[in-house]
Design brief:
Structural class: mainly alpha
Number of strands: 2
Strand order of the largest sheet: 1-2
Helix content: 40-55%
CATH topology: Arc Repressor Mutant, subunit A
Radius of gyration: 14 Å
Number of domains: 1
CATH architecture: Orthogonal Bundle
Number of helices: 4
C-alpha cells in the first residue's frame, strides 16, 4: 500500500457530530438498543432512529457492527470531533 496515496474513502474522513449525535453514538457503542437510548434521553424512539440513520450515511456504514467498528477506530485515532454551534 502506498502511504502517499490520498484517502478517498468517506469513512476515513473526520466528521463533526452534535452533542445529541454523540449521546447516540456512545449508546450504540455500549450496545444499548435504540429504544433504551430514547428512554434515557427522554425523546421519541423515531428521533433516535432517524438521527442514527443519518450518522450511518454521514460515515458511510450500513450495519451496527460497521458503525461500532468505525467509531472505535475513530476514537483510538483521535478523529472524533464535536460540532460547536456559533
Amino acid at each position: 500500500m502506498n502511504m502517499d496515496t490520498p484517502k478517498t474513502d468517506k469513512t476515513d474522513e473526520t466528521c463533526e457530530f452534535t452533542e445529541q449525535e454523540f449521546q447516540f453514538i456512545f449508546g450504540i457503542c455500549w450496545g444499548l438498543p435504540l429504544v433504551e437510548i430514547a428512554e434515557q434521553c427522554k425523546i421519541d424512539h423515531s428521533i433516535v432512529m432517524n438521527t442514527v440513520l443519518g450518522i450511518y450515511r454521514k460515515v458511510g456504514v450500513s450495519t451496527r457492527l460497521e458503525f461500532v467498528h468505525h467509531f472505535v477506530r475513530a476514537a483510538l485515532n483521535n478523529e472524533l470531533r464535536r460540532h460547536h454551534d456559533a
